[in-house]
Amino acid sequence: MTKIAISLNKPCTDLSIAKFLHVTLGLSLTAARKIIAKGKAGFFFSGEFYLNDHIDVAKKTREILQFFKDKGIVLFIVQLDDEDWEDISVNDYQIQLTDLENLLNESDSLFD
């Protein structure tokens, strides 16, 4: 099982991003605005791959990646493999966007 979490690399106040998170993830606009204003500390999405809901998590992850890629906004992405999220330095677990895209592509064949 692979866990990921996504936030913005830098704080942001763009209302269109808050609206996207509201529509896509069901966050209130107020919560979304507060989260994106935190930058790296404001994780707005987390998910686990290879579980029963893998297809839904992968789809939601791709929607998020595409939206921010289209806007030219850099994301901060962390990945943990079967580890506890408590008491860690998230910077030690940062992965690049291409790493996450590769993970998604590799997992596609398992769920076809």
From TrEMBL:
Superkingdom in the source lineage: Bacteria
Protein known as: Uncharacterized protein
Organism: Motilimonas pumila
Phylogenetic lineage: Bacteria, Pseudomonadati, Pseudomonadota, Gammaproteobacteria, Alteromonadales
